[in-house]
Prior knowledge:
Blueprint: H1 5-22, H2 36-49, E1 59-64, H3 70-86, E2 89-94, H4 99-111, E3 116-119, H5 128-136, E4 141-144, E5 155-159, H6 161-176, E6 180-186, H7 192-206, E7 211-218, H8 223-236, E8 242-245, H9 248-260, E9 268-270, H10 276-283, E10 289-292, H11 295-310, E11 318-321, E12 324-327
Parallel strand pairs: 1-2, 1-3, 3-4, 4-5, 5-11, 6-7, 6-8, 8-9
Antiparallel strand pairs: 10-12
Helix pairs in contact: 3-11, 4-5, 6-7, 8-9
Amino acid sequence: MKRTITLLVSALMVSSMLSACAGEKPEQSSSEAPSSSAATSEAASETEAEPSSDAKKYTIGLSMNTQTNPFFVDVKDGVQKAADDDGVELFVTDAQNDPSIQMKDIENLITKQPDAIIIDTCDSDAIVSSVEACNEAGIPVFTMDRQANGGEVVAHIGYDAIKSGKIAGQFLVDELGGKGNIVEIQGIMGTNVAQNRSKGFNDVMAENPDMKIVATAVANFDRAEAMSVVENILQANPEIDGMYCANDEMLLGALEAVEAADRADEIVMIGCDAIDDTIAALKAKRVEATIAEPPFFLGKAILMTAVDHLDGKPVEKEVILENSLVTQENVDTLVTKE
């Protein structure tokens, strides 16, 4: 079932306004001490206005796959903002894109006995044993962006990666008139996101036989790695008309290589995520397009879903957020954060 970012943001804004109103207190004069009955009344009022020390405060573990990629920094910021709004304590870990580190991180989170654990996986297969460990400990699991290929997950929130790949492919078809030499730079192929972004892109390419993929390379969603592989591709391919990078970090690395080779004017480039650096590059007319998958709102949405579940409210098993094409023409209207 799809939900739009607009609806999510509206819900967040309403929740924030209500929380702000609930926290307001009338000012009290300090010119004289209150009487015994007044003090009793005031204490009762404060008890009603503020949660008691025994009130339930959720603790949630957040296992991030990395905190060096700007996309995932924004995801974590979104989770943190929603946690702050709801009075939730977060235990945050950083797996540094290493599945073995993420496994240890989740083992440590389990020992803290949180009310729930949110996982952004390094590898969709490798994470299964960690999800199962959470299941055995009776800790509900939520995933975002990248799915787990096994174990019991209460809810997953992410973007339609196949749709993103198709948007990128169709953009290049439209820009190049259905004919050209194309390069595809892929992400971490152990994740469902990288697999599906590539599938969607190649589905469109297959429908347009005059769009010839002359090179495909894996750069693991990394900027420096993308710059290196694109340097090699440029040397081996004197004629390139379009390039799809499966995330913006790789797009920006590829852009450095393309500009250094003085070939920016001949290659139409599109990425995915709409991170801040890419938005700046779009406004400067250095790249042609990206696909908006705002990470900040993704983070807020998963935290809200976890809290709803812990509150006993029904939640969707899978929520797919809206993604859309961003070009030089509409970049000024894009909203990616609160």
